[in-house]
Design a protein that fits this description.
Strand order of the largest sheet of chain B: 9-6-10-13-14
Number of strands of chain A: 17
CATH architecture of the largest domain in chain A: 3-Layer(aba) Sandwich
Shape of chain B: globular
Helix content of chain B: 25-40%
Number of domains of chain A: 2
Strand order of the largest sheet of chain A: 1-2-4-3-5-6-7-8
Number of helices of chain A: 21
Structural class of chain A: alpha/beta
Strand content of chain A: 5-15%
CATH topology of chain B: Creatine Amidinohydrolase
Strand content of chain B: 15-25%
Number of domains of chain B: 1
Oligomer: heterodimer
CATH superfamily of chain B: Creatinase/methionine aminopeptidase superfamily
Largest sheet of chain B: 5 strands, antiparallel
Number of strands of chain B: 14
Order of helices and strands of chain B: HHEEEEHHEEEEHEEEEEEH
Chain lengths: ~600, ~300
């Protein structure tokens, strides 16, 4: 797609008569006979907010923006009554009729533009005139009214979201105070512009528009004409069958993501993208926004649903977490998926509808895991990969990006065990365990983190460390060292990726009954003794009776909650506690020689 | 042949056991065929009890159990009381397990029957792969491997298959327990305590006491009490596997002699099912899900 503002030079200005004879300034450009994408701006903005997005869309679509009544170059009504939503929808319908008389348009709204969009797709006025709708940071007002009502009944779980949204709506109350319009005219506009840039809401060197002072003052009427009435008496029949895509910036200071959790009640065909970013996403990430719009437009025009869109589909019957898309359509990559925790994790995600890419050095075992995932009703593939091999991991990452549209969750689980003192551990032993347990996690983390950041839709990386990461011992030094490194790697990566909305979790299971014991290398002893120790340990682990499926459930939960470090078994919690608050005890215990007790 | 408490099970006795085991499986099959959405575990357990008592069953090792949905994998079961039939309703696609242990004329059967209401691919997989366990168990017992090791071999096979061992949820983690011909009852009707027949419990307690002194256990699990060669007698063996919220098992009698072991009866629903699948496979009807895909990482186009 082409650049940003250069593309707009080719846009033509025309005038359309809106409701009540208000003159609307319309910009039109792009490919004349392609589907029409109609972009509606919010408050306090003008159509200039779409410059970047429109530029990116112009080489494939017929793109139209306009200044809504009271903003930019368009005319303004005489009083507050001229700003009620039905009139705004009349304007929208007039523009759509003019620029695309014979074909329905693809509507995109941001902020108040999005509120208008909801009004347009859920009421009769424009029935059949809208083929798809992409909504950014603006819920339907009746839906908001219903949302508040649903949470006003005293339920502890509803209080948090209610308070959070209430606090972020402070300005709405302010706009109802006398003098709000005057504030804009008496220098408030400059202060707002500077403030928004300083807060990081808007890119450096931009302002909402040169006409901000008048736009701000007039636009206050949007709130005064609509908010109280709609929130006081919200309609409960505002539904639509038009395909709707919600783009939900996680860092929106004005609209909390939770506010949109009930949207599936109102839109039968719904996609929801929770993405990193703030309120002015069309300005801060125009290329991504344009890409997301294009995906829905192409699908609504009859094209297949691309995987990158499908993973965001909300299926009303899913056990979706608080109205977010469940795991259906998500792509989950698991290493070491041929057995133990890895296999059970793959199955746990498959059970929640995710597509699974099962990776193991034992190709047959990975194939078996993929087979079981398919029994659970999902798409699953498998690959034989040595996680310690940088080239193989790069090939895997490329393949996941190319064939699956990238991963949503990556679980770096592959690992091997090694027991015996440092003095008995040879250089070869060290290299072997570092290669799998540390390098494997490094490769999986850096390659997939890069993809997630570039894609800009967030994601999650889970690294399976161990309770050994915070339990010094003379029995497991090599293993503990690699796992402590994995823990620290995960913590650092979490800090680095937070702004990109990529979560990172370190899982510290504890004593879990898996095959790792029977393949653990016991250094410094003969083969017979090694086999005996493996058997004894295996029995100990079996009697402990903590199955890998429980760790898998903990991993799924950790991704849902974006936890940082998750000890799983009680002994893992205890070990972490002791190491933190009684390191002396921890060191004392490290001196016990497990071999003497076998 | 000698058995737990010193009585001798003869060839005629085996016939008696086989008959009551056939009866119990017939009850499970007929009950399963009549299952409908909305029926509860309690109702189904009661149906089985009525059916069996109508067919001459006069006592119980334990009353019928029925588990639906994720209860087949013993999800959410922490205390033994929760094994008892609940008000869980059966739904389309749900797996179920029917388990009953009737006694007729002193002969005990203990059977487990797994199925699903409509199609459930996970249940089909579990049920199909249980065949390997049935072969493994009898093979290893024939080799006279310690029962504890047989248990561990079953565990290892389940792990290879990707399944969870669910029989470890049973009391004492048992995969099997011994049964024997019960002595004639003193009363016409023996009491039931917590779904278990008192006559059978008394027999089990007495046998356990004797066995412990002799260095073996009528309860077969993975502890040191089972670290002994297979003990001659009749064992009700019940490998129970799980995958996420789906569980499946079979339970039937294994005959162990001094130098051999065999399943009491091969004419059972799960065995017939495996033969049918094997015949299908031979005729070229293959489950497409079995076809391997992408065994190696292919060359990636950039």
């Amino acid at each position: 797609m082409s650049g940003t503002s250069e593309g707009l030079d080719a846009f033509e200005r025309r005038w359309v008569n809106g409701a009540g004879g208000i003159e609307l300034a319309v910009q039109e450009g792009g490919v004349a006979d392609a589907p029409t994408v109609l972009l509606v701006h919010g408050y306090p903005d003008t159509s200039a907010v779409w410059d970047g997005v429109a530029g990116h869309l112009a080489d494939r679509y017929h793109v139209v923006t306009y200044d809504v009544r009271g903003a930019g170059a368009s005319g303004a009504p005489d009083d507050r009554r001229g700003y009620v939503l039905p009139l705004l929808v009349e304007d929208l319908a007039a523009v759509a009729r003019k620029v695309s008389p014979s074909r329905p348009v693809h509507l995109v709204g941001h902020d108040w533009g999005s509120i208008q969009g909801w009004e347009a797709v859920t009421t009769e006025r424009m029935a059949g005139r809208i083929r798809s709708y992409t909504s950014i940071s603006g819920p339907g007002l009746d839906h908001v009214g219903r949302w508040f009502r649903a949470r006003l009944t005293p339920r502890p779980r509803a209080v948090g979201p209610l308070l959070r949204q209430g606090l972020r709506s402070w300005y709405v109350g302010l706009f109802h105070l006398p003098g709000a319009a005057l504030f804009w005219r008496l220098g408030g506009a400059d202060a707002v512009s500077r403030g928004l840039v300083r807060l990081g809401e808007l890119p450096e060197g931009t302002t909402p528009s040169p006409t901000l002072a008048t736009d701000g003052a007039r636009g206050v009427n949007l709130y005064r004409a609509n908010i109280v009435r709609r929130l006081h008496r919200p309609a409960d029949d505002r539904t639509t069958d038009v395909p709707v895509q919600l783009i939900v910036p996680s860092g929106d200071r004005y609209v909390t993501p939770a506010l949109l959790d009930d949207t599936a009640r109102w839109a039968s065909r719904l996609w929801r993208r929770d993405v990193p970013g703030r309120h002015w996403l069309p300005r801060t990430a125009p290329d991504r926004v344009a890409g997301w719009i294009a995906e829905l437009v192409d699908h609504a025009e009859g094209g297949p649903e691309p995987r990158t869109l499908a993973r965001h589909r909300i299926h009303p019957d899913d056990r979706a977490d608080r109205g977010r898309a469940g795991d259906r359509g998500k792509v989950v990559v698991v290493t070491g998926a041929g057995s133990g925790i890895g296999r059970q994790t793959a199955l746990a995600f498959a059970d929640r509808g995710a597509e699974v890419v099962a990776v193991d050095i034992d190709g047959e075992a990975a194939a078996r895991t993929a087979l079981l995932c398919r029994d659970l009703g999902v798409v699953a593939t498998h690959h034989r990969v040595d996680v310690g091999d940088a080239e193989a991991m790069e090939a895997l990452a490329k393949l996941v990006s190319h064939d699956h549209g990238g991963a949503d969750v990556v679980v770096n689980n592959a690992g091997i065990g090694m027991a015996g003192g440092v003095l008995d551990t040879s250089v070869d032993d060290w290299e072997r365990i570092l290669r799998v347990n540390l390098w494997g996690v490094i490769h999986g983390s850096r390659l997939f983190a890069r993809q997630m950041v570039d894609r800009g839709e967030g994601g999650h990386i889970v690294n399976v460390a161990s309770a050994a990461a915070f339990t010094p011992s003379r029995g497991l030094p090599a293993y503990s060292t690699t796992k402590a490194a994995v823990l620290m790697l995960s913590e650092c990566l979490r800090g680095e990726l937070a702004d990109a909305d990529v979560g990172v979790t370190a899982i510290c299971p504890g004593v879990v009954n898996t095959g790792i014991v029977t393949t653990t290398r016991f250094v410094g002893v003969g083969e017979g003794e090694e086999a005996r120790r493996q058997r004894v340990t295996k029995r100990l682990y079996a009697r402990r009776g903590f199955g890998p499926e429980k760790v898998a459930d903990a991993i799924v939960r950790a991704v849902d909650r974006d936890s940082a470090v998750v000890p799983v078994t009680p002994e893992a919690h205890l070990a972490r506690f002791v190491q933190r608050f009684a390191p002396g005890v921890s060191r004392r215990l490290a001196r016990i020689d497990p071999a003497e007790r076998m | 042949m000698p058995s737990g408490n010193g009585t001798v099970i003869g060839v005629n006795d085996l016939g008696g056991f086989r008959e009551v085991q056939q009866l119990a499986y017939r009850c499970a099959e007929e009950t399963a065929a009549a299952l409908e959405p909305g029926v509860t575990e309690k109702e189904v357990a009661a149906r089985m009890r009525r059916w069996l008592e109508g067919h001459g069953v006069d006592d119980w090792f334990h009353l019928p159990f029925a588990w639906f949905g994720d209860r087949t994998a013993f999800r959410g079961i922490r205390i033994p009381f929760q094994f008892f039939p609940s008000d869980r309703e059966l739904e389309e696609g749900m797996p179920y397990i029917l388990d009953c242990a009737p006694v007729r004329d002193g002969y005990t059967a203990d059977i487990g029957y797994s199925g699903s209401l409509g199609h459930n691919p996970v249940l089909d997989r579990l049920l199909g792969d249980l065949a390997e366990h049935r072969a493994l168990i009898v093979d290893q017992v024939r080799e006279r491997r310690p029962l504890r090791e047989v248990y561990e071999a079953v565990d290892a096979l389940a792990a290879r298959q990707g399944f969870e061992n669910r029989h470890r949820k049973y009391p004492f983690r048992v995969i099997a327990h011994q049964v024997d011909r019960l002595p004639a009852p003193r009363r016409s009707r023996s009491p039931i305590v917590g779904r278990f027949g008192v006559r059978s419990l008394r027999w089990l307690a007495r046998t356990s006491a004797v066995a412990l002194r002799q260095g073996w256990s009528p309860l077969w699990n993975d502890t040191r009490f089972s670290d002994h060669p297979p003990r001659p007698g009749l064992w009700a063996v019940e490998p129970h596997l799980g995958l996420r919220g789906v569980g499946a098992k079979f339970e039937e009698l294994l005959v162990v002699t001094d130098d051999d072991a065999f399943w009491l009866d091969d004419d059972l629903p799960h065995v017939r099912r495996w033969s049918r699948l094997a015949a299908d496979a031979a005729a070229g009807i293959v489950d497409t899900a079995e076809l391997p895909e992408l065994p190696e990482l292919p060359e990636v186009r950039s």
